[in-house]
Amino acid sequence: MSDLIFAIMPMFIIWTLRRSAVERTLVSILMASALFASACGCVKIYYLATFDIRSPDTWRDMVPQYMWCRMEEIVIVIAACAPLLKVPVENLLRQLGFPTFQNKPNQLNALRSDLHESDGDLQQDIHGDLESKRSDSE
Question: What is the dihedral of CA 74, 75, 77, 81, to 10 degrees?
C-alpha cells in the first residue's frame, strides 16, 4: 500500500512545477513505472500464496513467481536509470518533432543594471552611504 501512495503522491507535486508539459509528462510516466513495479509485486505475492510445495515438479511451478520477481526488479532498475537518459530522450523528441524541455526562467525582482545612468547614481549613493557610516563611527 505504501508503494502505491509514494508513487501517486509526487505526481500532484510534479504538475504544479513550472516546467514544460513534455517534461512533466515524462516524469509522471517515470513515476508511474513504480505503479507497474507494485503491480508486479502483487502478482508475485499471489503466486507465492498459491504455490504448492508438494507438487511433483516444483521447479516448473516456480517459473511464474520467478518471472514476476525479475519483472519487478527490471522495472525498478529502468526507473532508477531513466533520469540519466534526459539528453538522448530530448534529442529523440526533437528528431520526432515534439517540443523539448524548455525552461523559462522567471523575472527576478532586482535592480536593473541595463540603465547605465542609474548604475552610476546607485554606486555614488552606496559609496556616499559607506563614507557617512565611516565618519559616524569615527
Answer: 130
Grid cell 507497474 in the structure block, residue: 36
Is 24 buried (19+), middle (13-18) or exposed (0-12) by CB count in 10 A? middle
- In the chain, where are the structural domains located? 2-96, 107-138
Q: What phi and psi values does residue 114 have, to the nearest 5 degrees? A: -85, -10
C-alpha to C-alpha distance for 28 and 9, rounded to whole angstroms: 11
Model confidence over 66-123: pLDDT tens digits? Answer: 998 899 889 888 888 877 887 787 788 788 887 766 666 666 666 555 554 454 455 5
Written as nine digits, the cell of 31 is 513515476
Phi, psi angles (nearest 5°) of residue 54? -90, 10
Kindly report the length of the chain. Answer: 138
Q: pLDDT tens across 46-62, in order?
A: 888 888 888 888 888 88
Amino acid at 2: S
